[in-house]
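REQUEST FORM: STRUCTURE PREDICTION
Request ID: SP-0412
Submitted by: Lab K.M.
Chain count: 1
Length (residues): 306
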Amino acid sequence: MKPIFQKLMAEPEEGFAFKVVQSAGFDCPWHFHPEYELILVLRSSGYRVVGDNVAPLSGPDMVLVGPGLPHIWQNENGRESVHALLIQFDERFLDGLIRVPALEPIRRLLKRSSRGLNVTGKTLDSAAGLMMEMPRLAGMNGIIQVLRILDLLAGSPECQPLASASFALDAQPYDAERMNRVFQFLNARLGQVIRLSQAARVVGLSEGAFSRFFRVHSGRSFPEFLNELRIGRACRLLIETDKNITEISYECGFTNLSNFNRQFLRRKKISPREFRRQMQASMTEAAERRTLDDHPLMVRSGGGSG
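STATUS: Completed
RESULT:
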């Protein structure tokens, strides 16, 4: 089978494409393409996979994906709709300009995107603001805005690689169609018991052949990948719901609480209970900080005016 290859079409007069996604889910399978893609998710509930990196997905989330790097964004059915913004361009967009010395940081940024870059912190806030202005811009104004965004990312330490340095895509044995069938199978049954034999049947392989196939294409074993997806869902449920930890463990497909606690601690270096406590404290602090920012004349320390 051939890998799922996509050629993204840029606007000919601008050299890049800007897209708004507002739908029940993402319609792209596990795929790769020769273009660069900057993806800003404002609303979603699910997970994303970039190379061999798996992470829970919620808004806002921004990733710069380089050419040839396989990826998939998966929204969980029935939870909430997707709202995302995308900028896509190929190497020709910066031809000529990229040789200007002042744009050397952007050239280095694009080279680093071969592993995928996750944008966080204040850089995410600023870049998201610039992307949300894009629908009002056209022609040269749009080109300048894309360069502003890339320049912002290029000068920030808040752009961290996602895929491991050792992750490499070999185009010959790579089978994106069957990998995509596995992703769809896992997404639909993540809260259930999933056996290796079931996943192997989805793609018509024996258990041994499937284990080798999955490690080659994802960079990790099937149980490791499955547990990462489940812990990602658990983190979201711990933050967004009042369900107790036992309920969450079963909803995420773990058959006993001790195994859930062990897997969670292994990946997050903290217990589920402490994770929830810290996240709640962090969100309370952020809400209080926003209130103070909205009312700059409020007294920020104990005591009043004399």
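NOTES: The chain has two domains: 16-161, 190-278.
Reviewed by: T.R.
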